Amino acid sequence: MAKxxxxxxxxxxxxxxxxxxxxxxxxVWISNLCYIDGLVPYAGCRTCLVEIEGARGLQxxxxxxxxxxxxxxxxxxEVKQARQQVLAIINANHSDRCLTCxxxxxxxxxxxxxxxxxxxxxxxTCSKNYRCELQTTNELLDMGFENVEPWAFEPRSxxxxxxxxPDRANPWLEFDPxxxxxxxxxxxxxxxxxxxxxxxxAGRGFPSRIAFGAGGRVDESNCDFCGACIDVCxxxxxMEKPNKWIARTEDWTSTTCNSCSVGCTISIxxxxxxxxxxxxxxxxxxxxxxxxxxxxxxxDAVPDKQxxxxxxxxxxxxxxxxxxxxxGELVSYTxxxxxxxxxxxxAESVAVLGSPFNTNEENYLAQKLAREVIGTPHVDFxxxxxNRAAAKAIEAALGSEALASDMLQIARSDIVIVIAxxxxxxxxxxxxxxxxxxxxxxxxxxxxKLVLVSHMWGELADFTEPxxxxxxxxxxxxEAALVEALAARARGDKAEAPATHNGDIERxxxxxxxxxxxxxxxxxxxxxxxxxxxxxxxxxAAAAALAKAxxxxxxxECLFVLPTEVNAWGARDMGVDPxxxxxxxxxxxxxxxxxxxxxxxxxxxxxxxxxxGDNPLMFAPDKARVRQALEALELLVVVDxxxxxxxxxxxxxxxxxxxxAKTGTFTNGERRVDRLHAAVGALGDARPALLALTxxxxxxxxxxxxxxxxxxxxxDEIAERVPGYERFGSRFGAWGKQHVGPRExxxxxxSLGAASVPLSAVPGELLLTTGRTLFTSLExxxxxxxxxxKLHREEYIELHPADAAALGLKDxxxxxxxTERGDLTIRCRPSGRVLEGVAFVPYYYDGGAVTALxxxxxxxxxxxxxxxxxx
Length: 871
Ligand code: SF4
Ligand code: SF4
Ligand code: SF4
Ligand code: SF4
Ligand code: FES
Hints:
Helix content is about 25%, strand content about 15%. Strand 15 (about 350-355), helix 9 (about 360-375) and strand 16 (about 380) form a beta-alpha-beta unit. Helix 10 packs parallel to helix 15 (about 535-550) and helix 13 packs across helix 14. One iron/sulfur cluster binds near residues 260, 262, 264, 291 and 429.
């Protein structure tokens, strides 16, 4: 540690730390328009000048490093004046009219500037007005008040030059280069923090400018719309497009993204009760200052008017209309119908579905309603099979499905082994931390090695070979056998590895051998396919086998099993499983799983279903059979915030509020407990699902059966009653930082059962796979919104160019996909991302349309592809 004097005050800081960061940490404001904390300084803006006693001239605090005995002044008049002069030069190339005008706080966007009536671009006409770092910097450096009016009587390069056009062609990110001060923060954020390099500094000298890709449109570059560049841009050059004119927020609320099991913490900005912007919330050490396009932009994927705002009832036959209903009447009606069914057919003629998108509180009450109030053991959710299969395989191999690993270690790993369809798309920030491990950044370089086992290309593939790693590309269905072969090699067994299309199995085996060194930090990340239960079982078993081969008794500490959905592990922990009560204890009586419920409904023994947040008609494979089952029910009750296909098929719909209007908790992929706070209120008559569950319980069992006044009461009951959640009462103070525990750290040697079956397609057919893609919104897809994928990049079946050529297909052709279970019409895209003989359709395309083609086990299926002939 070093001691320095900052503006006359003694301060302690780490020797060698960037001086600018130390100044800011002390709460002393300093202009620093090109610096990004933690990165190598660019030293381009010169606005961070300070006096360091003994040094010649003023110094840049971003390049200066703290040393013992340093005496630093930031506030002396000559220091401030130097910074003003530097800023005046920056302003000279900016639309700066308001920045130095004493009237600026009085002017409104529609006002004509009284000082300069030909000027249209200025702060009061700018969408970043009052939330702009350049503007704040001008304010705090007194550029207006001290008569620093550099433009008075001078030619103005900004207003006298022709300015480039803005790029507003994509749905999320606006790029208005005329506002740019060439600080290059965006270039460095995209390159050094995101490892994407979509932005460059093009040209030299005065005409230097920021360019996306090769200088074209943002959406034609490799930008993936994470928005990291927006967060660091000190001007209005890079802005969130949605709500940009109203995103000067009144309030910020910390909550959790619901779009994957990384569970990033986000902060939702609201204005007039509406969510208008989302930013990363740094309280979560894994996501820290980063999120992906889904966390940043999907908060408003569905307009309010498309959400359910009234409760609905359908009294006629299937297909007849649903009519609005009052809450109290609907609760009574539903309770009476359920009571009548229970009286006639028994409690076990009723089933309850929770959801991996529900909060823990909702899932806990859903299973409690089933087991304690209705008296039925049939509790599950429709996407449960792959997650259950993976969890059971992990438990069989390691003694506990709750692993001891911590995602914070991924970025510090020497070796990362990723087994996934496309981790970049399914779990973006986990992929980002993997890239951190491989390349780090120039301020903290790293040289981790990545072994990627993926049947299709994703961005992580670019982080393998060039960095001494390797990408093994097996056919879908043989990933587990490949990983098991690597595990066998690590154990010293002879093992035949299945063929891989590219990559080098010997190279992978050598890296795995290296990983046996206990001094190396190793992370094995397995993301099971969201539909394929058989693959998930085999894949998890193989990943566990590899973890055991590398770390023996400590296998649990290096393995991550990340479900597609945000709260799949939370749903299991809360007892939304036919075999498990809350906390993983055996259920008092085993019930039917979702597939069993479907069979029972078709057979006529299951009469009623209460669906809390689930949407089986989107998520479950074998859609026609699921629909047949739902239509056979005497009573289908749905609690949802959207008119999903399942809600439309229901007799009773309780309008729920969306995820960002909820208070509660999620348990993420490593069982870190994240907090949700309600950022927005309810729309129309909608009420949180917890109220529907509580009132239904009271309607069925009488007043007093449950009394929860607030979601926190349920959180506290979970902390009291669910083993592992003891710490996570509503007053817990470290959300996002701690895991469900105690977690077993010692593996139990039991059988692995990693029998994976490589699938081969029938000649003339392709092997159909599906998975989570990056851009399509969960909520948009659930209502079949035409712009659920606002970029329209994922509305295709991807097939290999050789297969497309053999079938006579070209980009954009409409094709019909046909399997034994059903057919689907979709446009095609020849793509080198997939193997020859393999086809990929996004899971969420058109509300899960592809699930109609899969069998009950969700495994890849042979599919016939033919051109759609015009009717
Ligand atoms: S970017 Fe900032 S400084 Fe520039 S016009 Fe907009 S609000 Fe004013
Ligand atoms: S949005 Fe993300 S990927 Fe796109 S340019 Fe900005 S930092 Fe790069
Ligand atoms: S776009 Fe923004 S962050 Fe990038 S160089 Fe310009 S002002 Fe700086
Ligand atoms: S990585 Fe996952 S949790 Fe994080 S912002 Fe993206 S979708 Fe949300
Ligand atoms: S912050 Fe130091 S030169 Fe820009």
